[in-house]
Amino acid sequence: MKIINTNGIGFIELLAEKSSWYCGTDYSAGDLYEAEEIFNEKGSVKPNRLVFIHHPDGQLFEPIMLKENQYFGRPTELDGIIYILLVDFEDGKIKILACKDSFESITDLAVLPLSDVEDCYNLLLRGTPLMLTRQGRDNSFQVLWQEKLSFKIGETEAFLYKKGDKFYFSRWLEDPDYREEVVIRNKNGEVLEVIKGSIFISPTGEEWVLK
């Protein structure tokens, strides 16, 4: 057995498809939106830790130590670069960091005002292409960066990915039996196509519809 000292972080997950990196956090104040709720209620929140473990050697990196009132969201990886989502509640900023060369180089890729979002509920970095999205409790879907757009989606829809100018969502229904559909929308939120079944991306990047 290989012993990796994460200092208490007991769960890790693959950073992205075909990645050689795993990431893990201690969730000291829950998810990002829960940390925001604590900050808004109490005026302060304890930061979380974010570690990265490289496969197969098991080398561990903790490249950034946060201070009080800062919190990590879930990172992602694209084309060999690791991107980290960081929210500074005290300064009112959302930061996207780009990490290269095993974290020897870390730069601010984008800085957005926290006031751009109603809250941090489902605030996520996405890959292919890289973008920052948010899916609100009011059935709204937003792209906050690199472009900006917003439209309404169905109550049971969840964003999957963007391909060209099309946005792919999964939708579940019970009428009365449970089933799933793929909803394809344009940048205005208009439905272009509905495909019966759920979508799966194979390791080689093929789109499989499971009916």
Describe the protein in words.
The structure is a single chain. The strands form five sheets. Strands 5, 6, 7, 8 and 9 form a five-stranded antiparallel beta sheet that branches. Strands 1-2-3-4 form a four-stranded antiparallel beta sheet, with no helix packed on it. Strands 10-11-12-13 form a four-stranded antiparallel beta sheet, with no helix packed on it. 18% of the residues are buried. Strand 8 and strand 9 form a beta hairpin. The longest helix has 11 residues. The chain has 211 residues and is mainly beta. 5% of the residues lie in helices and 48% in strands.
Task: Map the helices and strands.
Elements: E1 13-14, E2 21-25, H1 32-42, E3 50-54, E4 60-61, E5 70-72, E6 76-78, E7 81-88, E8 93-100, E9 105-113, E10 123-126, E11 131-135, E12 140-145, E13 149-152, E14 157-163, E15 166-174, E16 178-185, E17 191-196, E18 198-201, E19 207-210
Antiparallel strand pairs: 1-2, 2-3, 3-4, 5-7, 6-7, 7-8, 8-9, 10-11, 11-12, 12-13, 14-15, 15-16, 16-17, 18-19
Low-pLDDT parts are none
Number of extended strands: 19
Global Rg: 18 Å
Q: Quickly count the helices.
A: 1
Structural class: mainly beta
* Helix and strand run: EEHEEEEEEEEEEEEEEEEE
Shape annotation: globular
| Spatial gap, N to C terminus | 41 Å
Multimeric status of the protein: single chain
The residue-averaged pLDDT reads 95
Strand content: over 45%
**Major beta sheet summary:** 5 strands, antiparallel
Q: Report helical residue fraction.
A: under 10%
